[in-house]
Amino acid sequence: MKAVAYNIKEYEKESLAVANGKAHDLTLISNPLNRNTIHYAYGKEVVVVSEDDLIDGELLGELRRIGIRKIVTRSITTDHIDLCRAYDLGIQIANTPFEDHTPKGIAEQTIRNLNLWGDGKCVGGACCCAKECKLVDDQLGYDGTK
């Protein structure tokens, strides 16, 4: 998948690169996602954000307009994302809810979400969609694996 990860801290770069293993076209930038930096998402399918990125309804509309269909947040919480507006726009949301919240663990969860979406599967326990996903019937485990 083609993805851009916003708000990347220096200590996250290596973990994300190693977890990705060149499986996805992943661009890492240190800028937060906002109206001034949305241009980095042009041509991408997914944006990866942190809990410091405020993803309100207006920004979601702009992301959808440029082709973004999926968002991964590198956090447990999704309070910074308007989930109802994302649902209305058909944007899927995933988080990183599993126990390992080290940079390595979060990177692995982020890439796992991209892998599952890339394979057309539900992300399981990481799914934060405001509705039940039609793919959820196909998945068996909490982590989205079969």
From TrEMBL:
GO function terms (MF aspect): D-lactate dehydrogenase (NAD+) activity; NAD binding
Matching InterPro entries: D-isomer_2_OHA_DH_cat_dom (IPR006139), D-LDH-like (IPR058205)
Residues annotated as domain D-isomer specific 2-hydroxyacid dehydrogenase catalytic: 7-98
Taxonomic superkingdom: Bacteria
Keywords noted in UniProt: NAD
Keyword Lyase found: no
Matching PANTHER family: 2-HYDROXYACID DEHYDROGENASE HOMOLOG 1-RELATED
Protein's name in the database: Lactate dehydrogenase
Source organism of this protein record: Sphingobacterium haloxyli
